[in-house]
């Protein structure tokens, strides 16, 4: 099942200014989106498999790139949780 607001957040984070704000003040940015608490926790914990079930793979990959996660770590988490 896709989560519109999660996808919207990930899409919006393509803006360099918003991505920088997110890295500096994540909770402030998250407060702008009506996200479920489980989703907020998954974001905080970098729970790749949980988030992968709820958004477009391209947006997911971009999100983790924007947060600074290296490719090998992203793939490891995607495959093994």
Q: What are the main properties of this structure?
A:
mainly alpha, globular, single chain, 81 residues
Protein model, in words:
With 81 residues, the protein is mostly helical. The protein has one domain (4-80). 70% of the residues lie in helices and 0% in strands. It contains 7 helices and no strands. The chain has helices at 4-12, 16-24, 26-30, 37-45, 48-52, 57-66, 71-80. The chain is globular, with a radius of gyration of 12 Å. It starts with a helix and ends with a helix.
Structural class: mainly alpha
- Taken in chain order, the helices and strands follow as HHHHHHH
DSSP summary, beta strand count: 0
Largest sheet: none
Helix count from the secondary structure assignment: 7
N- to C-terminal distance: 18 Å
Percent in strands: under 5%
Mean pLDDT: 93
Instruction: List the domain count as a whole number.
Output: 1
Gyration radius, rounded: 12 Å
What is the helix fraction of residues, given as a range? over 70%
Q: What is the global morphology?
A: globular
In quaternary terms, these chains amount to: single chain
Uncertain runs: none
